[in-house]
Amino acid sequence: MAAQLPGGAWSSLGSLGVRFLEKFGVVAIGGGFFVLGGQSAQAEATIYASPDGITWDLVTPNAPCGPRYSMCALNYDGNMYVFAGRNATDACNDVWICTGGEMAWKQLTAHAPFPPTEQAGCAAFDGGMFLLGGLSDHVATNQVWASYDGASWDNLGPAPWPGRYRPAVAVAGNALYVMGGSANDGNTLEDIWVTTTGKSWTQVENFEPGVVNAIPPTATSDGTTIYVGSMGGIWAGQP
Question: Which of 3, 40, 92, 142 is the most exposed place for a label (fewest CB within 10 A)?
């Protein structure tokens, strides 16, 4: 099923100014939005920033975390983190933090204990950062890892849900949801799993299938959510 925007009133904000970019990260932090890395004709190391989703500036063409796509990028404890993903040639398991308005980057570890992973889900949840699923050595996984500082990671898996990559991940209240994604054979998954601990998972029943796969990259700031399409289009709304 084609990706759908969440319900609510949505409006186009224009374009990021990039002809084609996919598999990037989107982070809301400090009242603004950042688009990190991605893939065009090659792996990109660019960072774009916007205070409102309308005006975008190229912060740098060469982020210290290097060219990468299909990575995890999130706001955790007021700092921007980038981990896992794929560079020009290989999957990654390094972890980077960016602090302050001067975009000061620091590598926290070159090799986290989780295997080199791309196309994983991620979320800030229960006081930590979570990596969920993803492709490792070209195999869809059901791994779950958590960290509270980006340098040390705890293995909370394997999860009971089938291995998957590109899952949709969401936090609602005190619960973490893993939804859909693609199985090892490339087929679309249409299940939903929920946890309140990161360790014990329950499958959600009685929901409408076909709505949980291929959620576009989104970020929320001050009640406004934006999503960035692979062709660079920007949309904003309050779902």
Answer: 3
Q: Virtual CA dihedral for 30, 40, 237, 63, nearest 10 degrees?
A: 0
The answer to whether 131 and 143 have CB atoms below 8 angstroms apart is yes
Find tokens 């706001």 and name the residue: 75
Q: In 10 A of CB 199, how many CB atoms?
A: 12
Contact 196, 189 (CB under 8 A): no
Structure confidence by residue, pLDDT tens digits, 96-112: 999 866 679 999 999 99
Set out the domains of the chain in order of their start, with CATH numbers.
Answer: 10-237 (2.120.10.80)
Tell me, what amino acid is at 153? Answer: W
Task: Give the Cα-Cα-Cα angle 62, 66, 69 (nearest 5 degrees).
Answer: 110
Residue reference for tokens 């991940």: 169
Confidence of residue 31 (pLDDT cuts 50, 70, 90): confident
Q: What gap in Å lies between CA 44 and CA 66, rounded to an integer?
A: 8
> Nearest 5°: phi and psi at 133?
65, -145
Given a contact cutoff of 8 angstroms between Cβ atoms, the answer to whether 162 and 112 are in contact is no
